[in-house]
Specification:
heterodimer; A: about 425 residues; alpha/beta; TIM Barrel; 2 domains; six-stranded parallel beta sheet; two-stranded antiparallel sheet; 15 helices; 8 strands; about 10% strand; B: about 260 residues; five-stranded mixed beta sheet; 10 helices
């Protein structure tokens, strides 16, 4: 039974966990077993949304915020004067089950400060997952943090019970990590990632041959980078992300705009705005790489190491590559249509389906729900219909920016002077 | 103009489609259960749901549509979107008059409108999978009250049955005055008369399991704790969680005790 004293612990340990932005509960395939509790299907469900607009799909908590490390960017760092608390194994189990049964959550996201040593901490996390699975017959989603430095045996066990595992790289480069967390090395993070990748791939192969083979982290692994705490440019960040997608089979890389929480002079001062727009642009770029078939080099490069803040990266790419346009949506490949600014993944598919029946004209596209005012600069029709033919990329950008009302407009006021 | 009056069910609508062809009715307008008093309508045609006619219409459509397309029609019906019966009828006319499957012909107005209705229902069903908030009663029933924009209970019951296989639950749609109830074996449709008292906070507190209040408090507490003040974005918040849903969302309702004060 859960008691009143859990209330304060929950406030402390949920608050400390909220800077981990991953809240995905998708991509698993765990079914309900023996009429027990829960399932974790392919698509995630956001059960609620915080006032900052982020999805709440999991009970995201730390087991404890006691920590032996003193990483400058972390709110739970040893030297920080915050209230400390620790859940018991049973408390986490009861909270998870109680929340899940009421349909508040998809499952549990459990992380922890490192107390004593990595194995000791990891063992507790694993014990909670094990208890949920074996004693409570809980089949909902479990995301466990893999603690760097924990033994392979414990990671192995974690994979048997969790749907997703994650090791946070935190800092995009070794240099920044050394600056802010001198006790840590990148290699401590890379090693468990490599181990998990090997195990995840191995178990997947086995599952293909024998459907009864046990699941091992069926929703794969993910990681997170803190953005804006240190000096990296977007090329370094996206390059690192690309490495994780290519080399580590990461399902997701998360970008967490640094929320100033410290007076440490190595970090942006308290009161510095969270780099929300930059974070958003990085996610857009990430999407282009994962779902739109873009190569990271097309989005950032040595000549342009940072993403534009005032326009999205797809528009940015199009304006730099005007020679690819205009595109005729009645004949072009799906892949090329996906690259037209203002046309998303689903609209592109609809276009390709609909053009089999008739030749599409601008009015059709407008009705299909594409952002036509933006796309029109990049479209070709058999009957020349537009005026934008001879516009330069700067003129197009100017016109598009004038059309959209951004709540961040103030941040770009210097832009007007350029034209 | 002919007003086609049917019983408000999908089968009733399918029967109506059959009879529109059978009696060659022109300029039709659908009405549920009773005729609109509007004097413009010169004739009324009353439809009595007929299984044979339903089968004829649906199997004809099944032959001309994909599995998804066929199911989509039912989902569109559940959207309860304005004029959906007419849109569906025009869509059916187009489907039946074409030699190929036209369900992806998004350049065609009715196909596009139908797709919008399907999307609306799908979105609402997904929302309800998220926004159902069960409360536990003294006799260990998990019950929830919802007021979805579309009639989605038929679409979400399987999700809840698979997920909450080991607990009795009831989800009640107050707008449409029926619920789905799972008794640990099967899901059935139930019509209950909630008296006016039923939603009062005192009544709820009386029937609640003793741990219920604490869990609601814990959830509200959690919801507050995960917010990051410096990232506040009310517009996005409202976009994801429109206000009309708040009254049934535990985290958006002040707790029972403070309501009594």
């Amino acid at each position: 039974m859960v008691h009143e004293r859990v209330m304060e612990k929950l406030a402390i340990l949920a608050d400390a966990a909220k800077y981990d932005v991953s809240c995905s509960s998708s991509q698993s395939n765990r079914k309900n077993k023996d009429k027990g509790l829960g399932d974790a299907k392919g698509y995630g469900i956001c059960h609620s949304y915080t006032e900052d607009g982020r999805c709440v799909s999991l009970l995201k908590i730390l087991l404890t915020n006691h920590c032996i490390f003193d990483c400058a960017y972390c709110v739970s760092r040893k030297s920080n004067d915050v209230k400390r608390a620790a859940f018991t194994v049973q408390e986490v189990v009861d909270l998870t089950i109680g929340f899940y049964r009421r349909n508040y959550i998809e499952g549990l996201f459990l992380s922890s400060g490192i107390f004593d040593n990595p194995d000791y901490t990891m063992e507790r996390l694993v014990r909670i997952a094990k208890k949920l699975r074996l004693e409570e017959n809980f089949n909902g989603y479990i995301h466990l943090k893999a603690i760097p430095g924990a033994s392979d045996e414990l990671l192995q066990q974690a994979g048997m019970y969790a749907d997703r595992l994650s090791v946070n790289v935190e800092m995009p480069t070794e240099k920044s990590l050394k600056l802010l967390a001198p006790e840590k090395n990148h290699i401590d993070v890379i090693q468990p990632m490599e181990y998990l990748k090997k195990e995840i791939v191995g178990h997947k192969e086995e599952k293909k041959l024998n459907y009864k083979a046990p699941l091992f982290a069926p929703a794969g692994q993910s990681t997170q980078m803190v953005i804006g705490a240190t000096q990296e440019n977007d090329m370094e960040i996206l390059g690192m992300a690309n490495y994780f997608y290519d080399q580590m089979n990461m399902r997701r890389v998360y970008y967490s705009g640094y929320v100033p929480i410290s007076y440490d002079n190595r970090l942006p001062a308290i009161g510095t705005p969270v780099p929300i727009i930059r974070e958003n642009r990085l996610y857009q770029a990430d999407w282009l790489i994962r779902l739109y078939g873009f190569n990271v080099n097309e989005i950032v490069g040595f000549d342009q190491p940072n993403l534009d803040l005032d326009i999205d990266p797809k528009l940015g790419w199009a304006l730099r590559n005007m020679n690819q346009f205009p595109v005729d949506v009645n004949t072009a490949d799906l892949e090329l249509i996906k690259r037209i600014p203002g046309i998303g993944f689903l609209s592109a598919k609809k276009i390709v389906a609909a053009r089999k029946f008739k030749k599409l004209v601008p009015q059709d596209l407008q009705k299909l729900g594409i952002a036509y005012t933006r796309a029109k600069y990049f479209l070709a029709f058999a009957t020349p219909f537009q005026l934008q033919k001879d516009l330069t990329s700067i003129q197009i950008k100017d016109q598009i920016l004038n059309m959209q009302k951004s709540k961040y407009k103030n941040d770009f006021s210097n832009q007007l002077a350029l034209f | 103009m002919t007003q086609v009056i049917y019983d408000g069910t999908y089968e009733g609508w399918a029967t109506a489609v059959f009879e529109i062809y059978e009696y060659k009715l022109k300029d039709i307008v659908f009405a549920k259960n009773e005729a609109s008093a509007d004097l413009l309508f010169s004739t009324n045609h009353i439809v009595i749901t007929d299984e044979v006619k339903v089968k004829r219409v649906l199997s004809g459509l099944q032959k001309r549509l994909s599995g998804v397309g066929f199911q989509g029609l039912y989902h569109a019906f559940l959207s309860e979107m304005n004029k959906i019966e007419e849109i569906m009828f025009r869509y059916v006319q187009y489907v039946l008059s074409s030699t190929v499957n036209v369900e992806d012909d998004f350049g065609h107005n009715d196909v596009l409108e139908l797709r919008k209705a399907i999307r609306l229902t799908g979105k609402e069903a997904h929302r309800m999978e998220a926004f159902v908030r069960f409360q536990l009663t003294k006799d260990q029933l998990y019950y929830a009250i919802v007021e979805p924009d579309c009639n989605v209970l038929p679409l979400i019951e399987t999700h809840f049955k698979n997920r909450y296989a080991d607990q009795r639950w009831l989800i009640y749609d107050v707008k449409r005055k029926y619920g789905v109830y799972y008794d640990l074996e099967n899901v059935s449709t139930v019509e209950i008369q909630f008296d006016a008292n039923a939603s009062s906070s005192r009544f709820l507190a009386e029937i609640s399991d003793e741990g219920e209040e604490l869990f609601q408090d814990l959830w509200r507490n959690y919801f507050k704790s995960v917010n990051i003040e410096s990232r506040k974005n009310k517009k996005l918040h409202l976009q994801h969680m429109p206000k009309r849903y708040w009254k049934n969302l535990t985290e958006k309702i002040p707790d029972i005790r403070s309501m009594g004060k």
